[in-house]
Amino acid sequence: MATSAVTTANFDAEVLKSSTPVLVDFWAEWCGPCRMVGPVVEEMAKEYDGKALVGKVNVDLNNEISAKYGIRNIPTILFLKNGEIVDKQVGAVQKSVLADKLDKLI
Prior knowledge:
Elements: E1 4-5, H1 11-16, E2 22-27, H2 32-47, E3 53-58, H3 63-68, E4 76-81, E5 84-90, H4 95-103
Parallel strand pairs: 1-3, 2-3
Antiparallel strand pairs: 2-4, 4-5
């Protein structure tokens, strides 16, 4: 499964009401580090299919969600469980760092 496109309109239903842990990547097309993290997030979406929701929020198109969660630097990856933020990663990191954080929630 590919990453879910998360928007202001579907954030509550997709992310906050998810029955599985969630990784949400806040990104933008013009962001260099975001382009480095993007393929890693896509890989994780396939690997965690059925175990976790992996989504992406384009900050340029979804200002309300970005503002609500205080996203000031991108990429920022939020980890949520039961609708609550339980972990956060700012900046580009290796896949193993993201996988470790998500594995703790499963």
